[in-house]
Design a protein that fits this description.
The chain has 15 helices and 23 strands. It is α+β, with helices and mostly antiparallel strands and 488 residues long. Helix 2 (33-45) packs parallel to helix 3 (67-80).
Amino acid sequence: MVFSKHRTELSIELLQEKPEGQYFDRKSAGISIPKLVQSIIAFANADGGTIAIGIKNRQIQGINSQGNVRINDFIQSGFDQCIPSVKYQYEYIDVIKENGNADRIVLLHIEASKDRTHKNQSDEVFLRVGDENKKLSFAQRLQMEYDKGERSFEDKIIPECTLDDLDDQVLGNYQLAVNYGGDDILKLLKARGFAKPKNNDVQITNAGVLLFAKYPTTFLPNARVRFIKYEGSKAEVGTGMNIIKQETIEGPIPKVIEEVKNVVQSQLRNFTALHPLTGKFVSVPEYPTFAWQEGIINAITHRAYNLQGEDIRVTMFDDRLEILSPGKFPNIVNKDNIREVRYSRNPRIARVLTELGWVRELGEGVKRIFEEMRLFYLDEPIYDEPSHSVLLVLKNNIVTRRQRRQERIGSLISKEWTGMNDEEKRALEIAYIRDKITTRELADTVERSPNYARKILNNLEARGFLKLVSSSKTDPNQYFQLIDYTEK
C-alpha cells in the first residue's frame, strides 16, 4: 500500500519515528502560521523537503480539530505568506489516533527553489541546515541570490539522452530505496524532476544523466573521478615522474562512488597503535574510513558539474590524501563555517544520494570528519578553495605513526595495562602515536588541570614507561617520550 503519492517511501510509522533533518520536519496542529512559514521558506531555499502537520511529540494529533479555515491557512501559507510564493504540493493522509478516532494529517512537499531566494513578510530569509531553520544575515542573503543560478543546471535537458541510455540496475536500486511499486519507471523520473515530456517523447535532465545514465561522460565529458597515487610527498614531472597508480572512474554517480571507494581502499596502508582496552599493539587504518569516504562523497555530490575542463581528483601522497572538487564553496558555505552550514549546489542529486543512503541527512558529515580525525590523533582536516575548486586535505602523520619494532614495548606495557587508570592509558597512547606528549596536551585530552596531568606523566616516568626530554627544568618546550626498549 502506497502511503504518500509524492514520497512513496513514507509510512505513518516513519513519519512518527523518522528523525527531523535536512528533508523532513514535524509540526503540531497548533503551530503558528509565521513559524510554519519559516520552515517552508527554509526548505525552499535549501534542498526542498516534507513538512508533516498534525504530529506532536511523535504522536498522531490530527488537524481536524483546527477547523477548515485554519487548515486552509496551512495549505495557503506558502502562497500567501512567502515572497515570492514557494512551489509545493500538499496531500491529506487519513490516520487513526490513539483513542481510535479517525483524523487527518497534512503533508507539504516543498520544492527546492532553483533561481529565487524566498523571504517572509517581515523580510526575513531562512535556510534549512540539518534539523534547524537558520536565519540568514544580509551578506548571506546576497550571496545566496548570486549563487542560485547554478542550480538550474540540474534541470537542463540533454536532448540526445533517451531512456535506453539509462542504467537499469541503478534505476532498480532507486525504486527500492523510495519504495516505488509502479511498473512505469518514467513516472518516477518525471515526478522527481529527472525527465520531462516533450511532444510525444521524453527528455532526460542533467541530474538524471549524472545519476542514472550508463555512460554520463557521453553527454557531460567531465563527469568522472580521477585517482592518482604518487610515491613521496609531492608530484614530480619529466624523468622524475613518480606516479605509481592512476585510474579514471566513470559511470552513474552511485556506481562511481562505490568504485572510487574500492580503489582508494586498495591503496591504503595500515599502521600500528596501542589498543586503548588491552595495551597491545594493533593495526589501524591510515585514515579513518568515514573521513575519506565522506570527503569523496561530498566532492561528488556538490561539485559544479556545469564547469567543463576539470574532473574530481583524489590524489594520494605518502603523507596526505587530497580530494579536489571543481567549483567554489556553494552559496553561503565557506571553509570557516563548513562544519555548521549546509547548502547543496545540486539538490536533486543530494536528495537521491540521501535516499540511497550515501549522503548524511542530518548534515553531520563534515562535523564527523573532524571528529574522526581527532579520535585518530591526526591533524584537523584542511579545507581550501584554490582555483575555483574546493580542496580537502587529510594528513596521515606518517612521520610519527611509522611502524617500528614494538614487540618488547608491547610486552612490557601490556603486563601492567589492566592496572592503569584511563588517564595513564591515554597518555601512553598519545605518546606512542605522536612520539611525544606534553603536559598541556594530556590536560586538554583528559579535561583536567595541568598539575594533574603532570602528576600522571611523572608517575609514568618513575615507572619506566616515559622519559622526560628537556634542556632544563624550566624548558618551555619540554615533553615526555615513550622509552623504546627495542633499542636496548
